[in-house]
């Protein structure tokens, strides 16, 4: 069970694994402007999804190191989403 506490609010979510690397996903409070609450995200810097995502973003500058982390939104049945992130280079 993943437990996330913020501003006195406790969120309990089931353990879920990244389908790309098998690591347990971490709880993360998304920024308010996203409309999401607490989501589960893969923070594994060795995850193949994360490492291979730099080339998946269309129309970005060539010198940009943006990529995506795998995440799931519990509010929509744990459907997968990509969260923009800076990739190591």
Helix content: under 10%
Low-confidence stretches: none
Please give the count of helices.
Answer: 1
What coarse outline follows from CA principal-axis ratios?
A: globular
Q: N- to C-terminal separation? A: 33 Å
The mean pLDDT is 82
Sheet with the most strands: spatial strand order:
3-4-5-6
Proportion of strand residues: 35-45%
- Tell me the major beta sheet: 4 strands, antiparallel
| Computed CA radius of gyration, to the nearest angstrom | 14 Å
Q: Pairing-aware structural class of the strands and helices?
A: mainly beta
What is the domain tally? 1
In total, how many beta strands? Answer: 6
Protein name: C2H2-type domain-containing protein
In short, what is this structure?
The chain is mostly beta strands and 89 residues long. It has one helix at 48-51; strands at residues 2-6, 9-13, 26-29, 38-41, 66-73, 79-86.
